[in-house]
Design a protein that fits this description.
The protein has 173 residues and is mainly beta. The chain has 3 helices and 9 strands.
């Protein structure tokens, strides 16, 4: 619990989780309800992972249509009974503040020219990420498939430089 404000930074129930009885999709619903109970507004499911019979769900803030990956919360759900067994909100507590965004210098179509043309893009949006130099960067996020794998590509919205590539194991529900 944080000293300032009394916010829960993280919690973890280390119980043994039995064989999965709950689907990953149902666990995502449980995680979303948990987020709402914490009065965290404008959060959307961004990443779904599976570890040892537990679903791990990352939610990011949607700031006026921009996915803010700096302001994230992670919820872990046991797949044996759907119980929330983990919560991590440090990124949210540290990075939750009002930001003003400048208009990108590139259009989404201009940014798309910097993405591998073989990527079958299924989603595109603006996103705020932290680059390798620990700087906040406004990017276009392109999600799509290539050779039976799913990826997220982040293209700097001002320079067209590729900032990050992520391989996605599970798609958000």
């Amino acid at each position: 619990v944080s000293k300032k404000g009394g916010h829960v930074v993280w919690m973890l129930n280390t119980r043994n989780v039995g064989r999965a009885q709950v689907s990953l999709e149902h666990a995502a619903v449980k995680a979303s309800r948990f987020i709402k109970q914490k009065n965290l507004e404008n959060m959307e499911l961004s990443k779904t992972e599976l570890f040892d019979h537990e679903g791990v769900f990352t939610f990011v803030r949607n700031d006026k249509g921009i996915k803010n990956y700096l302001d994230a919360v992670v919820v872990k759900v046991a797949l044996d009974n759907g119980e929330v067994v983990g919560y991590h909100a440090e990124d949210h507590i540290i990075n939750n503040r009002n930001r003003s965004f400048t208009t990108p210098k590139l259009t989404v179509d201009q940014a798309k020219t910097h993405v591998n043309r073989n990527l079958k893009i299924s989603e595109e949006s603006l996103a705020l990420i932290e680059n390798d130099l620990n700087q906040e960067v406004l990017c276009y996020e392109f999600s799509g498939s290539l050779d039976r794998s799913f990826y997220r590509i982040y293209i700097n919205a001002d320079t067209g430089e590729e900032e990050k590539v992520e391989k996605i194991e599970y798609l958000p529900s």
